[in-house]
Amino acid sequence: MFTRIVKMEFELNKVAEFLANFDADKTHIRNFKGCRFLELYRDKNDPAIFFTYSKWDSPTDLEAYRHSELFKRVWATTKPMFRCRAQAWSVDTLVSLK
């Protein structure tokens, strides 16, 4: 399992639209094969910066999602709202304290 972190910066006037779209799609994303966890975070200092944090069984599952009709639709709606290019990282957990 690995974690995918995506940073997205939106035009401020598009934030409400993004949040509404995310709310409509979050369950579909979370229930996509191989997705085990999904959270959305908002920056404390800039209300137009968001991060998605998701856990995936394998890179193959993430790639299947990224090539799915669901992702294509979500990204086609989301991408035009950005104020700059999104950034993404795939990371492995080295330490987790609970």
Q: Which strand-content bin applies to the residues?
A: 25-35%
How far apart lie the N and C ends? 18 Å
Question: What are the secondary-structure elements, in order, as H or E?
Answer: EHEEHHE
> Mind summarizing the main beta sheet?
4 strands, antiparallel
Arrangement of strands in the largest sheet:
2-3-1-4
Shape: globular
Structural class based on helices, strands and sheet pairing: alpha+beta
Count of distinct strands: 4
* Helix percentage range: 25-40%
Instruction: Enumerate the spans where pLDDT stays under 50 for 5 or more consecutive residues.
Output: none
Query: How big is the Rg?
Result: 14 Å
What's the average pLDDT? Answer: 97
Count every helix, treating DSSP H or I runs of 4 or more residues as helices: 3
Describe the 3D structure:
The chain is of the alpha+beta class and 98 residues long. The relative contact order is 0.29. Strands 2-3-1-4 form a four-stranded antiparallel sheet. The chain has three helices and four strands.
Q: What topology emerges from the helices and strands here?
A:
Layout: E1 2-9, H1 15-30, E2 35-42, E3 49-56, H2 59-66, H3 69-78, E4 87-91
Antiparallel strand pairs: 1-3, 1-4, 2-3
Helix pairs in contact: 1-3
